[in-house]
Design brief:
The complex is a heterodimer of chains A (304) and B (294).
Chain A (H helix, E strand, L loop, with lengths): L5 H28 L4 H4 L12 H11 L2 H32 L5 H10 L9 H8 L4 H10 L1 H9 L13 H9 L3 H12 L2 H9 L4 H12 L1 H16 L3 H6 L25 H21 L1 H12 L1
Chain B lengths: L9 H30 L1 E3 L6 E3 L3 H7 L2 H32 L6 H7 L8 H11 L8 H6 L10 H29 L3 H9 L4 H30 L1 H8 L11 H11 L3 H27 L6
Antiparallel strand pairs in B: 1-2
Classes of the chains: A mainly alpha (304), B mainly alpha (294).
């Protein structure tokens, strides 16, 4: 720093260390509690050194919460949401930034309004679509009289049905349908020099070629940042998966946490609960630790 | 900002936007419109379609003291957790920005809590704050029955606020630190040469330059507290004891999916959507008007 302030520095260290302790304490307690047996975990005060029962607790949690299959479901779910986000938002932003056509401004606003209302806020209406994702089109056909027309003229009954309950599509698609990544991509495209598009055009590249061979490779950093942040975000989703996965066989790890809560009148086996918590919270945590630079960058540029 | 070089093929342009537009039509616009429809109608108990009831769902809701309690609670929850997490994050970011030895370690560890799923940290804090085991149980050893989130509504509210604030310290920290690092070093150094100490520089240079970030985070934190609190509440208290932690989104979930009162839940959703939209517009207005120092 610019000047010598030894006393103030010591104060800073004290506060920062305190902050470090507050940030790390819950992790430490989860970790310590996961290594003790039933008796030790319920002693007051909690022992502060790890015990030796970690693998027992972990395997108990593993079977109780079906972690084998649920973690796999979570992995597929989070990866698909992140990949879908990257693909769709890079394309939508390309259309908004690089094309000139009537209605472009309208499309821009239609997409950005979705930023305002997160899924949790509009959970009731979104859930209504889960029973049949094609219902909007059915209603449109009904109202416009096309159903009636097809029925009377061709003898064709139009019934569009596509249930989303207990399916990956149902889990994934509604979470992809927001503008978060589109904004990030738009900002990035705007920084790409015009000369590049010009050169590509002069060399005879069409819009597809320019997108695939120039923009996408250039946006690699963007892609990684968006992917990281979306993976963490979707791994941690709770309310939507809770509603859409009614079949206990299907379902993801985070909603499984509820089965780990010790019941009020049963065994207070917090050691197993904490081992399960540890297993479920680790993947996004590891990703954030490993990809910190990308994560921070993605977070700051998606929100702003 | 506009691009000078563009493609003008309408069909291909639309083709690139089509998948996103299709998804938001099916999963955003249609459901939102339908919620509006539901909010103004009442489903007949024995089928026969929905009956138009005008504002009666809203009137019923607004006259219901239980609904107003959930609104008050949401604001108590939102404002206190925002104050705690933003305050602590600001202090930590200001100190980390001084780049004392080890600031890289602080910088990465403070972010970790944000990676944890709300229900997972809910479960962790349920254990940490449990009255009979865990960390805070020591209090009950000394003063019996002082702390019990399972029975005392106030304790339960404190517990969910602590859990939520802990997660969002990391989030706010990232934004504060990045804003602080955007302040030109020359400004700080010039002030130091003029004899301003660290506290003076914080008060007169860094805090004023942080106001846009402060406002931005304030709105984001309050809207996040409406939505991300669901997992924490569901795992820690399930809205209890005696509705003491029943926040707005939890009440919508409970009325709509457990109580099967779709019209009531849709009306609540509409009100919450309006509230969030208002907050967001407020934020946009403020950010547009913010002062640029560069």
């Amino acid at each position: 720093m610019v000047e010598r302030t030894p006393v103030f520095n010591i104060l800073c260290y004290l506060i920062l260390t305190l902050g470090l302790a507050v940030a790390l304490l819950p992790f430490a307690i989860v970790l310590i509690a996961a290594t003790h047996d039933l008796k030790a975990v319920n002693t007051v005060p909690l022992p502060l050194v790890p015990g030796t029962h970690f693998w027992e607790n972990m395997s108990a949690a593993w079977t109780r919460a079906h972690l084998g299959s649920k973690l796999l479901h979570s992995l597929i779910f989070a990866t698909s949401v992140a990949a879908g986000k990257v693909a769709l938002s890079s394309m939508a932003a390309y259309s908004i930034v690089y094309f000139r056509f009537p209605g472009r401004i309208l499309i821009f606003w239609l997409i950005f309004v979705t930023l305002m209302l997160p899924l949790e806020v509009r959970i009731v209406p979104t859930y209504s679509i889960a029973a049949n994702a094609l219902q909007p089109f059915q209603t449109l056909l009904d109202v416009s009289g096309l159903t009636w027309l097809a029925d009377t003229v061709f003898g064709l009954r139009i019934r569009l049905e596509w249930g989303l309950l207990n399916s990956y599509t149902g889990l994934i698609l509604p979470l992809v349908a927001t503008a978060t990544g589109t904004f990030l991509y738009r900002q990035f495209y705007l920084t790409v020099p015009d000369e590049l598009a010009e050169a590509a055009k002069v060399d005879g590249a069409g819009s597809f070629r320019f997108f695939l061979d120039m923009l996408l490779p250039l946006s690699r950093a963007n892609m990684i940042a968006l992917f990281t942040i979306m993976f963490v975000w979707s791994w941690n989703q709770y309310l939507w998966p809770l509603l859409i996965t009614t079949d206990p066989e299907f379902g993801i790890a985070v909603t499984e946490l509820k089965t780990l809560i010790p019941s009020e009148f049963g065994l207070p086996d917090w050691n197993v609960a904490m081992a399960g918590t540890l297993a479920i919270m680790s993947p996004p945590l590891l990703l954030v630790i490993l990809m910190q630079r990308w994560f921070v960058r993605g977070l700051i540029s998606t929100e702003k | 900002m506009e691009k000078r070089v563009t493609f003008s093929t309408t069909a291909i342009g639309l083709l690139f936007a089509a998948p996103m537009l299709l998804l938001i039509f099916v999963f955003f616009y249609w459901p939102s419109a339908q919620a509006l429809y539901w909010a103004f109608t009442l489903e007949q108990p024995w089928g026969g379609g929905n009956r138009w009831v005008g504002f009666s769902n809203f009137r019923q809701l607004l006259e219901d003291p239980i609904y107003w309690q959930s609104v008050t609670r949401s604001f108590v929850f939102g404002i206190s957790s925002t104050a705690i997490s933003m305050g602590m994050a600001l202090i930590l970011a200001l100190l980390t920005d001084r780049e004392l030895a080890g600031h890289r370690l602080y910088r990465s560890v403070f972010i970790w809590p944000y990676a944890i799923a709300a229900p997972a940290l809910g479960l962790a804090f349920r254990f940490i704050l449990a009255p009979e085991a865990g960390l805070l149980s020591v209090i009950n050893r000394v003063w019996p029955d002082l702390w019990n989130p399972a029975l005392d509504g106030k304790d339960a509210m404190i517990a969910v606020i602590i859990a939520f604030s802990w997660k969002y310290i990391g989030y706010n920290f990232i934004f504060f630190l990045s804003a602080l690092q955007g302040i030109p070093r020359a400004l700080i150094e010039a002030a130091a040469i003029d004899g301003a100490g660290p506290m003076r520089r914080i008060r007169d240079i860094q805090l004023p330059l942080l106001t846009p970030t402060l406002f931005f985070l304030l709105i984001i934190n309050i809207t996040e507290s409406f939505q991300d609190s669901f997992g924490i509440v569901d795992v820690m208290t399930q809205g209890g004891p005696a509705r003491a932690t029943e926040l707005m989104v939890y009440k919508i979930y409970f009325d709509g999916f457990k109580g099967l009162d779709y019209s009531g839940a849709a009306a609540q959703s509409i009100l919450l959507m309006l509230l969030v939209i208002l907050l967001t517009i407020f934020q946009f207005r403020f950010i547009e008007r913010r002062v640029h120092y560069k």
